[in-house]
Structures are given as C-alpha cells and as structure tokens.
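Hi V.,

Quick status before I head out on leave. The structure for the redesign project is tokenized and pasted below; the design run finished overnight.
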C-alpha cells in the first residue's frame, strides 16, 4: 500500500501539493489525471523518495519512505516520462540488470529476474539488443522491465504513452493489464483516459495540488469537466 498523509510540498515557495491524503491499495490499478502543472509528477516522485514532503508523510507498505529509502525504491518501481533518459546501460540485459545488481543480489538471481522481467514485457531473449536500436515502444517496455526486475509491489509510470504510436501504446497497455492481473499495483499519469479507463479500478484527478476527483472510472468520468482530461465518448 502507498499512503500519503497530509502531504504538502512546494517548489521555491510555490505550493504544488497541498495537504494531500491518499492511499493506494496493493493490486489497485489507478489512473492519475489532471491538467499540466496540477502536481501529478510531483506526487509520483514522492512515492520512492525522489522528493520528500515539506510536511506530512508518505508510507510504502507501512514504512515511512524517509526512514527506509531502499525499501521504498525496491517496492515502488518507477518509469519516467521519457524512458530514454532512464537507461543506464547500452544493452537491454545490462540495463534491466542494473537495479538488481545494486541490491547486491547473487548473479543467478539477477539473471532470473532479468529473464522474468523481459518475459513480462514480451521482450524475452532480447538481452543483447542495443537500446539505441529499439523502437520507442520497445524502449518503453524495457524501461518497464527495468522497474519490474526490482520485483516491486507497485509500478508507478509517468505518462507512459507519450510519443508512442498506436501498436506500441497497445502493447504497453496489454503488459500493464497482465501485470495488474498478476497483482502488481499500477499508478499511472495520463491526460487521456480514453483507452485506459476500462482497465482501471480507480481514477484520481488532481487540481492545484489537491485531489479533485477520486472514484471508480464510471463515477469519476462524469466529474472531470474543466480538469483538462480527455474522456471516452459517453
Ligand atoms: N524542478 C522544479 N522546480 C520548480 N518548479 C517545478 C519543478 N518541477 C515542477 N515544478 C512546478 O510544479 C508544478 C507541478 O508540476 P508537475 O510536474 O508535478 O505537474 P504535472 O501535473 O505532472 O504536469 P504535466 O501534466 O505537465 O506533466 C508546476 O507548476 C511546475 O512548474
């Protein structure tokens, strides 16, 4: 479970998260929507301690993030908006292995995780491919594999569909659906709910650093007017 308890955060004295409380259950598939600048990315970056609240607390599986950064970073896999900026190695296998290597795991366990993570994103056997030669969709899936290799309880993705064409988008969506079905909690930001909200358990929309709407998609969709979110035709 990821819990935000009265979290406030400001960049240079400009409030971005305002007394925000929220909890995300294990296995829940949550869409985080809202206008540009409403605070979505800032919220995500609190989930594994990339940012720390000015006040309030974030807990992952019961432990305050600030108390145990390694536990938070192992439990919450993070996939950033531009996966290209996230890669640390030249080949797929080396990149996906990087996180487990940093946990100090045995080689055999690292290899097992890399194999499983690449299978989970439909990239099995592509360890030796150079990342620069992959398509955008394949790069997104490798970035997801890198997060999965940490065997997180939650996967947090910032606009994972940016720049992807329809087949790539579909492929990433299918992977996320399969992961959610296997019990991984998913939290993803998007401005466009049109083909994701069928997969989600819950839609949260932010406005000015606060939760403006929170509920199951059917209930939330009717309340999003004015929040700059594309919704399916109803
Ligand atoms: N590093 C930073 N320094 C100063 N201000 C920042 C920084 N990062 C974000 N902000 C500001 O914080 C506010 C919230 O930004 P954030 O990226 O969380 O919004 P968002 O909802 O993810 O937006 P988008 O949909 O455009 O990605 C914005 O006003 C932004 O300008």
């Amino acid at each position: 479970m990821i819990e935000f308890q009265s979290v406030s955060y400001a960049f240079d004295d400009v409030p971005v998260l305002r007394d925000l409380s929220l909890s995300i259950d294990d296995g829940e598939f949550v869409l985080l929507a809202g206008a540009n600048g409403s605070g979505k990315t800032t919220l995500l970056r609190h989930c594994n301690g990339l940012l720390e609240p000015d006040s309030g607390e974030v807990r992952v599986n019961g432990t305050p993030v600030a108390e145990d950064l390694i536990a938070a970073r192992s439990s919450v896999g993070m996939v950033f908006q531009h996966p290209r900026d996230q890669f640390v190695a030249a080949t797929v296998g080396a990149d996906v292995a990087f996180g487990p290597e940093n946990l100090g795991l045995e080689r055999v366990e690292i290899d097992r995780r890399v194999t499983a993570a690449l299978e989970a994103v439909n990239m099995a056997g592509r360890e030796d491919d150079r990342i620069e030669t992959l398509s955008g969709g394949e790069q997104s899936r490798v970035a997801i594999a890198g997060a999965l290799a940490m065997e997180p309880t939650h996967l947090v993705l910032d606009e994972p569909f940016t720049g992807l064409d329809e087949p790539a988008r579909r492929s990433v969506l299918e992977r996320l659906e399969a992961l959610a079905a296997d019990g991984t909690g998913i939290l993803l930001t998007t401005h466009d709910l049109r083909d994701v909200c069928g997969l989600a358990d819950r839609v949260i929309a932010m406005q000015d650093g606060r939760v403006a709407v929170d509920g199951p998609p059917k209930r939330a969709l009717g309340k999003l007017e004015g929040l700059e979110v594309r919704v399916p035709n109803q």
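Above is the designed sequence. The pocket of adenosine-5'-triphosphate is lined by residues 11-12, 16, 34, 36-42 (CB under 6 Å).

G. will cover questions while I'm gone.

Best,
W.
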